[in-house]
């Protein structure tokens, strides 16, 4: 299953947090996921929202190691429609030492090519820090390539995440200038800001 919208981005950008926040914002009490493991096995999982934060509990990067599609029931007319939001393993440059991570990144890239709609999550605070503190390039080739692929999709939205952190505003401003005319939406998965807009965007797809 490729999902109606694919959530992609650099590792640690906050993709899973955004999916969970969206589910919470929609008032879901339970999460229904379809996990596509990289060995080809597909598993259905359900968990109460109260336990969902366990998905974020690891301290390591590369927390998400398989495509996990969240099924969101959205009221439409007299019935309900299901919107599928596929959370993916984060991307990094180079060849990762761990084979599981390499396979997961390959799975993300295949899903990215196939997806009709993409939500590209960027850590706006990291962009801001790169700009002001280290004066290094805030966007690397990897991000540029994700934007280049994203532009070709029917739906493509950049989510500037972690807006609650220092320097994220600078990062957001830079993203808007650099990526325009693509729409860049400022959000904080931690605090929930910007999720009315995300919900509206996802709602339209139902
Ligand atoms: N301050 C702040 N931290 C956030 C926000 N969103 C996510 N984080 C933190 O950023 C870290 C990475 O979040 P994840 O949601 O696991 O990121 P991911 O993009 O799914 O990461 P991978 O699956 O490893 O690629 C976690 O420690 C989160 O708590 C945010 O809006 N603000
Ligand atoms: Mg994740």
TrEMBL record:
Gene Ontology terms for molecular function: GTP binding
Gene3D superfamilies: P-loop containing nucleotide triphosphate hydrolases
One Pfam family it belongs to: MMR_HSR1
Native source species: Alicyclobacillus hesperidum
G domain segment(s): 5-162
CDD domains (UniProt xref): Ras_like_GTPase
Protein name: 50S ribosome-binding GTPase
């Amino acid at each position: 299953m490729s999902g109606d919208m694919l959530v992609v981005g650099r590792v640690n950008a906050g993709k899973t947090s955004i999916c969970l926040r969206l589910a919470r914002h929609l008032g879901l009490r339970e999460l229904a996921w379809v996990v596509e493991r990289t060995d080809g096995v597909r598993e259905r999982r359900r968990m109460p929202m109260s336990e969902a934060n366990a998905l974020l509990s690891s301290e390591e990067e590369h927390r998400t190691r398989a495509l996990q599609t969240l099924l969101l029931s959205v009221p439409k007319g007299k019935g309900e429609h299901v919107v599928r939001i596929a959370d993916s393993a984060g991307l990094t440059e180079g060849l990762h030492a761990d084979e599981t991570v390499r396979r997961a990144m390959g799975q993300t890239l295949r899903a990215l090519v196939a997806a009709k709609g993409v939500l590209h999550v960027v850590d706006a605070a990291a962009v801001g820090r790169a700009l002001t503190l280290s004066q290094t390039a805030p966007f690397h080739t990897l991000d540029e390539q994700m934007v280049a692929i994203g532009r070709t999709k029917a739906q493509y939205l950049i989510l500037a995440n972690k807006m609650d952190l220092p320097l994220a505003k600078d990062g957001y401003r830079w993203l808007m200038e650099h990526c325009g005319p693509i729409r860049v939406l400022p959000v904080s998965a931690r605090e929930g800001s910007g999720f009315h807009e995300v919900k509206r965007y996802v709602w339209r797809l139902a």
